[in-house]
Design goal:
Bound molecules: zinc ion
Radius of gyration: 22 Å
Number of helices: 14
Number of domains: 2
CATH topology of the largest domain: Alkaline Phosphatase, subunit A
Strand order of the largest sheet: 4-3-5-1-6-18-2-19
CATH class of the largest domain: Alpha Beta
Amino acid sequence: MNRRVVVVSVDGLSSVDLPRLQMLPNFRELMERGSVCREMRGIYPTQTYPLHASLITGCYPYRHGISANTLFQPGRTSPDWHWFRRFLRVPPLYDIAHRAGLKTATLLWPAAGRSRNRYVIPEIKTTRPGQSFPWLLFSSGSPLFILHMGIRYRSLLKSLRYYHLDNLTTAVASHLIRKRKINLLLLHLLDLDGTRHRYGFRASEVQKVLEDQDRRLGLLLAASRESGSFAETSFIVFGDHAYVDVHTRIRINAAFRAAGLLDFDTKGKLVSWKAWANCCEGSAQVTLYDRKDAATHRAVTAVFAELQEGSRGVVETVYTREQVEKMRVGEHIDYILEAEDGCYFIPEVEGPVIAPAEDKFRAVHGYHPDRPGYSSLFLAAGAGVRQGVELRPIRIVDLGPTLAALLGLALPHAEGRVLKEMLDLG
Ligand SMILES: [Zn+2]
């Protein structure tokens, strides 16, 4: 049997969207034909890269190694992201599928740059002055394929706005389904996330984007029908996280600087540090240079207390290293700060510690996955998937092993489980 799995990550699709999706033809078709879970639990932090890494490896961040979107780079307020496959410490499903001789493709899939898939369009941006975007793009993906697709679908790429990018990657995905007999296709759609960040979690602008995503889903379903492989294809659609609307930002590293924990030279370059926070919007991961240094622990604890107390109460919870370990985030982290509702962390070291949110930034994620109303959505339909199953709460780490099972493979390192209750593998 020649199994095929099409995975569509609709970035930012949340459980609150379900009533609207039931009115959109292609989402509704999948829900009617397949299984649904309206309470998929993410991992901490609920950021796109750690979540996608957890999905595709079936593991928590402490094991797969991507505990935030960005790398831990003290002194850099625009750190590099975990763009590349090499940051994963356990093999992702696409490696296992590739090794088994299956055809795999990743289109803007997080942390899949420079992976060995047959077709790769990497998700990547410049983060340093002087970097060349075309060079980054071609050197991190499949250059001839990118060139070929860029020419073939150039009329769709009117700009690098997410709306146009999603149109382009959907056209490329449809092409791969129709012409290249792909076994595992991983597509990441961005426009819903961009819109929610910009306008707010429940903004009216979201409705139009949900319609656009439904239309794109329709194109993929049509491509599959045209290819003649529809009956052997499983479709998986999910959202990675929900959002919290925000009004206040917290410059946590500026607070460390004020407490004398960061030293800069006269040009403003960081020359030594005792504590630095890698900011994940709704949470911040604090690492001490020397975790045995009791004076630094006292100093950061005083900073945290100030941010938790009184009218400045912008931090909801401080998790200690023992708690961080239990939540399976990452061994290099000494504390995690969870922001209060409406507050988020940014890495800057200059400016007031507490400031109003940026105007163009109305909602964020990155908070603890167990916040009320903060779960995301999972839909599956097609080959190997039972019809009419309403799944009880699942975890995003269950998806990797389940996708593997649909392909007739196994994820040996997975901490999640195969969702057998929705499968009918004959
Ligand atoms: Zn996301």
